[in-house]
Structures are given as structure tokens and as C-alpha cells.
């Protein structure tokens, strides 16, 4: 973890909520790796609908990639309940 995270404060992640970690990683992809678009998509448990299993970070420099990913994620997750928040998207990076 130290090699990937690149600093010794990675253990602070243990006390964070999954959505907050996803947002932190999303921001790192945008700022440190320089992607034009970086979005955290919740991936839901098919059996339990609203339960987020993990977050997938989609990062790209291609201008059409975000729209394609939104469509793909919507198609894959369309059975989820309406009370579940959809991806973080803060293009201002």
C-alpha cells in the first residue's frame, strides 16, 4: 500500500467511509495523473440492490468517454433503487 499510496499516511483510510475514499482516489486520478475526467461509480450488489460493493474509478482524456461510461453504468445499474446516489462527478478537478 505504501508503494501505491506513496506516503505514510495511508492508514488514515481505515477510518474513512467508502464513498469518501472513492472521492479521494478520484481526485488523485484527476490531479496527480492529470486525467480530464475522473468519476467514481458505485457498483451495487445485485442481490441486495442498494448495497454498494465497491467504487469503480473511470478516468479518461477522451471527450466522449464520460458519456459512454454514464450510459454503460446506467444500463448495468438501472435496477437499483431511486434513493441511491449516482456517481461523484466534479469536473472542476
Q: How many structural domains can be distinguished in the coordinates?
A: 1
- Residue ranges: pLDDT <50 for 5 or more in a row? none
Tell me the span between the first and last alpha carbons: 24 Å
Strand order of the largest sheet: 1-2
Please give the number of β-strands.
2
Assembly state: single chain
Radius of gyration: 14 Å
H/I helix tally: 3
> Can you tell me the overall shape?
flat
Give me the secondary-structure category: alpha+beta
Strand content: 15-25%
Mean pLDDT: 81
Largest sheet: 2 strands, antiparallel
Helix content: 25-40%
- Give the H and E element order: HHEEH
Supply the key terms.
93 residues; alpha+beta; two-stranded antiparallel ribbon; 3 helices; flat
Quick summary:
This protein has helices at 2-5, 18-32, 65-77; strands at 37-44, 52-60.
Description:
This protein is α+β, with helices and mostly antiparallel strands and 93 residues long. The chain has one domain (17-93). It is 34% helix and 18% strand. A two-stranded antiparallel sheet has the order 1-2. The two termini are 24 Å apart. The model has no long low-confidence stretch (mean pLDDT 81).
Any chance you could write out the topology, listing elements then pairs?
Layout: H1 2-5, H2 18-32, E1 37-44, E2 52-60, H3 65-77
Antiparallel strand pairs: 1-2
Amino acid at each position: 500500500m505504501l508503494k501505491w499510496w506513496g506516503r505514510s499516511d495511508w492508514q488514515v483510510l481505515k477510518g474513512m467511509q467508502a464513498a469518501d475514499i472513492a472521492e479521494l482516489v478520484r481526485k488523485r486520478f484527476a490531479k496527480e495523473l492529470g486525467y480530464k475526467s475522473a468519476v467514481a461509480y458505485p457498483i451495487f450488489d445485485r442481490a441486495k440492490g442498494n448495497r454498494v460493493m465497491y467504487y469503480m474509478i473511470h478516468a479518461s482524456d477522451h471527450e466522449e468517454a464520460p458519456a459512454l461510461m454514464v450510459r454503460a453504468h446506467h444500463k448495468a445499474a438501472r435496477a437499483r433503487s431511486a434513493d441511491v446516489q449516482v456517481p461523484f462527478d466534479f469536473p472542476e478537478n
